[in-house]
Amino acid sequence: MLNGLRGAMTRFFTPLATLLLRMGVSPDAVTIGGTLVVVATALWAFPTGHLLLGTLIITVFVLTDSLDGVMARQAGRTGPWGAFLDSTMDRFGDGAIFAGLVLWFTAGGDDRLTAILALVCLVLGSIVPYARARAEGLGMTASGGIAERADRLLLVLVATGAVGIGAPTAVLTVILALLAVASAVTIVQRMSKVYRQAAGVAR
What we know:
With 203 residues, this protein is mostly helical. It has one domain (2-202): CDP-alcohol phosphotransferase transmembrane (TM) domain (Four Helix Bundle (Hemerythrin (Met), subunit A), Up-down Bundle), CATH 1.20.120. The protein contains eight helices and no strands. The chain has helices at residues 2-22, 27-45, 51-63, 67-75, 80-105, 112-137, 149-164, 169-202. Helix 5 packs antiparallel against helix 6 (112-137) and helix 6 (112-137) packs parallel to helix 8. The radius of gyration is 18 Å and the shape is flat. The termini are far apart.
């Protein structure tokens, strides 16, 4: 499903990518600019209780995450730098989203459990990609797992938007709890995968 959505988004953004390149806009500028909007929105809208508005703005810019890739391919500028920049900027955006929720539910949202779960998701969500990156740095692989970034982001944004239009906070609380468990399981899965590879090398 997600692969199909990515393909549709690629086709949708191709004309826009062409236009931006003709205007002299670089793929890196789109990557950094989109991240800045997501971070600023998450750290303003969520802590001030504008959950629906924040979700809508962030969703728009998350959906444009493939735009920089389309631009890079059209310009013939795909390579390690673009992949590194994109992954690094993703960490900023994801962290800001969960941090914004932590700030809201420790203050105006007044829900300690939801705040704690958002914090847990923030921490575990940073370990999931680190495990993969560290494994790859050691010449092994640690991809996969039940909680990929796109899945985590989709669920938290849908739940946050639902609460923003009047759904009970419990909806987001449950989703965050599930994401925390799924992230923990993913970390274990990736560690197990690396352990098996390391054990094979040791033999």
